[in-house]
What does this fold into?
Amino acid sequence: MTDTAAQAGELDVLCVGNSIVDVLTQTDDAMLEKFGMVKGTMALIDADQAEALYAQMSPAVETSGGSAGNTAAGLASLDAKCAFIGRVRDDQLGDIFTHDIRSIGVEYATPAATDGPPTARCLILITPDAQRTMNTFLGASVNLGPEDIDKDLVARAKVTYLEGYLWDRDEAKAAFLRAAGLAAAKNRMVSLSLSDPFCVDRHRDSFREFVAGHVDVLFANEDEIMSLYQVENFDEALQHVRQDCRIAALTRSEKGSVVVSGEEVHVVDAEPVGAVVDTTGAGDQFAAGFLHGLTRGEDLATCARIGGIAAAEVIAHVGPRPQVKLADLVVQKL
It folds into this structure.
């Protein structure tokens, strides 16, 4: 470890992902019809569409988001020491993202881009029936490259956690490979979230190569892991993934989770929740809870329990980040 890294102190987790600002507003069905949206879905939009829609939105709540950013927020709520790497532009939304993630105690020092596309945003329209219709412009976030991977942050982190959504661009793949190489050189762990079954469909071969060659801890849901190995059932996928990485933490919604590590298998029930209000961020918070347990030396079943507690909290309200202190909740529940 470098002198700089040692002086700055050890990190539990370094999260690398899309820097996205969530812009949430209440609206009506007429707004969705005007822009040709399909209620309850997520669509990728370009810069012009993002600007046109943003101009038509009523007063909104703006907060930093993105999958790995949400995981970092969960880790901070668990009192973990964590940092985040992701690209924003030097614009208003970039300032919002930077302020928000730092304000919750996450280290964030990726320099803002001074040219190119603006900061990524997810424009979320909430209709009176509580449906969330999301329009995502990935903007500056997709320009993350190997030069953005801070070797001192990787050296300080027990785990470097990578967001699979970034895998679409060659520069981001190069960033992941650099991060994985730096972590391996310091005998640190590398973790990957597969993020989305459609993402897996697009990049199956390169994902499998990366998982087998570089990943210590893999996060995936049932659909994602079955897509990765092109199998018809979960048990088949389980047999494949145990060959490829040290630990696989696989979520199954209301069925809970399964954690496999070599011959070791743990089946963990889902944490009870009164009413499911919004499943956005459940996987992100499960990863936060699991990694929190792992970096503190908990056994794998307990790691999954902590992940389940964090996921249950976030699905009980609107929004992908915890609304109560997860560290206190875990103490109560375990």
